[in-house]
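Worked problem 6 (solution included).
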Amino acid sequence: MRVAIAGAGSVGTAIAADLHAGGHEVLLIEREPDVVDRLRDELDITWVVADACEVASLDAAGLATVDVVVAATGDDEDNLVVSLLSKQEFAVPRVVARVNHPKNQWLFTETWGVDVSVSTPQLLTALVEEAVSVGSLVRLLQFEGGNAHLVEVTLADDSPAAGCTIADLGVPRDATVVAVVRGDRLIVPRGDTRLAAGDEVLALLTADAEDAMQRLLVGR
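Solution. The predicted structure is:
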């Protein structure tokens, strides 16, 4: 897979290093020459000194040939511009964007070319809630411009889903249970998988199906 990353800060370089270690071809675009000179010897990837917010720079970098673009700068406006150009000008199949300020989360949608947005503050909040909440539906990640979510529920003793098989739950069409964690065991769910109190249930669903899944798993 060929991946282009905009921004050589701590986030961008960490992503680049992980992807490179995984055998992927990585292109890192950074507009500050001093930053590139300092990091080039530490990370054996393709470096491009350019402004990722300019069409000509992205064209010269070969953005039309990449499979994924990651807009990972520390500026939300730049990340939105990179995302929009990647999708509209170069038809990049998948665009992932970093959200630095949670108040800007609503902008990171398909309208701006974003397929998946990642907000570190919101993700940390969700992970805290996931760790301490029982009987509450917690959003972990969002996809497809915010219309699809990965959610987690730890089933309480009084959950209507406790004791039911997944087939009997009546999961709506726009939702699917993707995993069940029981103690230290990961269960890949099937229709005959029976849920129990204390199970961590992960589901992928659209916004329209969220209320229905809330009623099935939480009961309120």
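Discussion: The chain is about 30% helix and 30% strand.
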